[in-house]
């Protein structure tokens, strides 16, 4: 059980800002040992603020991908520990920067951007981008299941991969894009300057402020040290 739990999901804009802070600061300070402590603190901070599921999702990928590239950097630099540490910090910053975004629902981000009167093209782009990965994952799973049902063979066979997996997947994605375009038009989502209202607004609470201030305080402490 967490020490405390936010009353709601993170304020979308604050989540995006914190992701940018993690990415930029982590990459800039990657060659320092202090950066490792900063990233570890960020992991704990995100864990405490309800992003524990997302933290656990990215952790195995970081350990595998980051570990491989860390070993490559270590041996490629004649067993230089500093180079290996820098590589670890870079991958840690990249994977941790994904966590705040993963915790935000696409509809919440759309509402937040609409509240701030962000250009509709940007709002629509963010909505499609955040929704694409789950859709792609689901379609890959469906096509793969269909292959197994038909007994198409191994996906690692180039001919089978192309005819039984890639072509159906691309066809499904094209159909989804057409459906998405029609859905957007039906719901009155235009790129012009037409007036619109936000039925359910995203509100900043004390947890959101405390969350963002914690990031800023951590960066200030690292810079001072």
Can you give a write-up of this model?
The two termini are 32 Å apart. This protein has eight helices and no strands. Helices cover 75% and strands 0% of the residues. Helix 2 (33-48) runs antiparallel to helix 8 (206-224) and helix 3 (52-76) packs antiparallel against helix 4. It has two domains: 12-104 and 204-224, no CATH class; 120-186, no CATH class. The protein is an all-alpha fold and 225 residues long.
Mean pLDDT over the full residue set: 83
Radius of gyration: 21 Å
For the largest beta-sheet, the strand count, sense and barrel status come to: none
Per the principal axes of the C-alpha atoms, what is the gross shape? flat
Helical residues, percent? over 70%
Determine the structural class based on helices, strands and strand pairing. mainly alpha
As residue ranges, the low-confidence spans are none
**Separate helix tally:** 8
Please tally the β strands and state the result. 0
How many structural domains can be distinguished in the coordinates?
A: 2
Could you state the order of secondary-structure elements as H and E? HHHHHHHH
% residues in beta strands: under 5%
Distance between the termini: 32 Å
């Amino acid at each position: 059980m967490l020490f405390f739990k936010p009353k709601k999901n993170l304020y979308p804009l604050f989540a995006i800002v914190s992701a940018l802070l993690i990415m930029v600061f982590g990459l800039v300070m990657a060659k320092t040992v202090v950066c490792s402590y900063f990233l570890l603190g960020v992991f704990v901070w995100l864990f405490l603020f309800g992003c524990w599921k997302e933290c656990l999702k990215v952790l195995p990928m970081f350990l595998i991908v980051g570990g491989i590239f860390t070993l490559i950097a270590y041996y490629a630099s004649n067993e230089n520990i500093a180079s290996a540490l820098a590589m670890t910090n870079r991958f840690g910053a990249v994977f941790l920067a994904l966590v705040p975004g993963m915790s935000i629902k696409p509809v919440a981000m759309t509402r937040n951007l609409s509240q701030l009167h962000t250009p509709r093209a940007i709002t629509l782009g963010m909505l499609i981008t955040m929704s694409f990965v789950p859709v792609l994952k689901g379609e890959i799973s469906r096509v793969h299941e269909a292959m197994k049902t038909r007994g198409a063979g191994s996906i690692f066979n180039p001919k089978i991969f192309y005819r039984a997996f890639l072509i159906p997947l691309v066809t499904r994605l094209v159909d989804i894009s057409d459906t998405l375009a029609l859905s957007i038009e039906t719901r009155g989502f235009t790129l012009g300057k037409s007036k619109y209202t936000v039925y359910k607004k995203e509100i900043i609470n004390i947890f959101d402020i405390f969350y963002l201030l914690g990031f800023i305080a951590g960066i200030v402490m690292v810079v001072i040290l």
